[in-house]
Amino acid sequence: MSNLKKKRNDRNSPGYRPLMIAALVASGILQPLLPVLAAGTAAATGISNTATATYKDDAGTDFNATSNTVDIKVAPIAGVTVKADGITDVNGGALEVSDQAIYKFDVTNVGNTPEDIFIPGTPTTTGIDTTTIAVTYQLVNPSTGALIGSPTTVPAGGAIIPGVLADQVVKVTVTANVKATGVSVGDPVSVTLGNAGTNNNDPLTTQNIVKTGTATTDEVRTVTLSPTPTYTINKEASAFQSLPFASKVTPQAFAVIKKTAASTPGATSAGNDDTINYNLNLSVLNSSPNGSYSPAELVGTNIKLGATAGAATTQSKILVSDAIPAGTVLKEAPAAPTNWTTVYSIDSVDATIPISSTELGALPAATWTTTAPADLKTVKRVGFILAASSNTAGIPTTGSTAVDFPISVITSGLPNNGGKVYNIAQAFGQTKNEATNKVVVDESGDSTPSNFNDDGSVGPVYDPKTDTGKADPTNQGVDGDPLNPNTGIGPKGEDTVSNITGTVAAAVDGLLNGPNGTPAAVGPTDANDDFTNASTQPPAGQSPISSITTAQIASFKNTVKNPGLGTTPTAVADVTVQPIAPSKAEASDGITPTGQYGLDTDIPVGTTVTITELNSLGVATSKTATYTYAVTAGVGSFTTTDTPVNLGTVAVNGVVNYKTVVNFPAGSILPLKAVSIPVVAFADDNPGGAAAGFNGETTNNITIDRVYTGFMKLVKEARVLDTDGTTVLQDWTDATTSGGTGGLLTVKPAPGQFIEYRIRYQNISAAANGSGNVVLNAKQFTLTEDGVFVATGPNANPNTWASVTTHQQNTIASPGSTLSFFNTAGSTIGTTDPANATDVGKYQNTVTAPIAPGDQGTFQFRRLVK
Questions:
Q1: Torsion on CA atoms 450, 455, 461, 464, rounded to nearest 10
Q2: Higher pLDDT, 202 or 589
């Protein structure tokens, strides 16, 4: 039996009270304040968000871009929190045997509509005489803060408090005596109001959580109201108070694997003998992104390892693994850093994993050997193991770079004109002294450790069926900024991409036809798919999922040249230019079809293409012909009633220019589409007859005039976070330009919860593969998120998020961006992320450098629902 009354008078000594308060904070009695909400946004309130952008092409032409719309309805959502409000020892002294104590709790309706809340009459206790428990509650007036009426007693089986208003507080008191026997000094004397799971003593993970399973009498929970509102999900919460109290932090090894790449051309000009030098970099951090985890040493995990495959045994090692990228082979045996050993696996990356089946119980493990195969081309993975690694010795939390690992591959099997090589690295181990022996995994491409999410929360569980180490740019993403590798955003690492440039055969025919001033241009495949990219100008505010209601026009200039090939160069007579259908271009090209011209059905029916000859001063001549496009049974054709444009005889090394104007009819095409118009120059065999025009003449050359209906794509996504700002209630909606209005968020945000908006932007135009092609760069790109609703007029704006949400810090933009913030009146408030709750009604993200074809970036901001 304890006897703390001997020191009761110490409470009067100087410094006792602050020390006691500090002890209460440490023990959990004085817990962090949970969010205190203002009057919640009414159910069914709409929150609409559409992003816009402006940009220029290389010629300085202005363009607009509009994202998909994300509409969020604030639905009737139940919500409840329980906050510990302190312990009172009734007799004023230390908490002793048989003392009566009052445990105070605040139960709050954090939903957005009145709701009924169940309160237990018999809370969970430790060190308490349960026969003495008495529970009462009293409502607080939301306007004045005064208590309403007298306390109501809760029976042992619990009671429903009816009609608790949104944001209204219920004061709950639990009065009970300490046990008369069986309590020792230091034992907890505690009360838990509610039962929200196995971790009821954590105020950050037991608030407003989804109620699952059968209702029990020890819970604090919302009760579904009928007929209205009917909650799709009920919530529950709990709070814990104890004296003393101790918290526990889980150890976690925070491993970070990063990758950089540099390519070196090979001996030939083709793209299938280049060397790519990768450098892997492993760190183990000494800081934690999540307060529930403390940094710990990285130690080994089980892998199958041996000097040969036949001698493999299960051993505990730290492993850095890199799958040999598709289109390459291992160039040489990598030299391992000091204390590390190079290992190899010839098992397919499509069917095996680098962790043993005894560790994960999933697929057969990859077998690693310390002996390099005689033929390095058979290696599917190369890796490095820490020689001294085990479950007791590994890499300490130094916070600095541990080691670099160089790996070189050589391109093999790529087309002669090159291509893209994708690669991702992985690091494996375990956390020292972590009870469950959970595998620690990190993937390259980002700077977050151990596959933790960007917000510090625990990332997805490693799945050997999908996370085999094989690069998958579609699902893993691609590092969009080659100058800033390992800056990927999202729960998974992003693939490193190496662009390998090769060469293709130049034209061998008697004519060259290409972009303006570069008739000898070469495309990605050959000299018949060189291209000029240009864009139409969809109107401002054009929805990405609705046909453009105005005609879309793009203009091109092209050049024809007689290169004077052969031993006796001659002039080429009756050179004619005209558009042809993609299928006809494929047939004329004479190589295995690659789809470089698109499909016949890509070109809208009714499209007109006008070809006009230009004189030496660039002025149109009288030679012009307009063609109209039709599709019959899936096969396209251009027809005209005009005389085809015959450029006459082109002398050796002679040059003639012409103009192509493409006109898509109103309502025939969506924004962000790419339409290839093949244009052929040929020596017409029958220039004056009824069959004038292209009929497969062998002396010909094709160029592509490719039209984009806007080339900067904006994709808006949203996710909902709980009131703690970290718990993800629904992750990114993965909206696309083919959808995104309404219905994407099945979890609707309640007052006090967060909406995070993310806009992904990308230059969707084709890159300059080959030589001499004309591409589209987006310059002065400015993305605008304006949430101030304007109903009508020239500044009409459909967005409504500014009035029902408030700014929260966590604004993120891709490197190379400048952020600007504006209040709801439209005045600028600076370029740094303002404090929480600052009046921010508009965000602007300006990208300083041109956005090249294929490049992409993101802009993300957070709002708190009022």
A1: -60
A2: 589
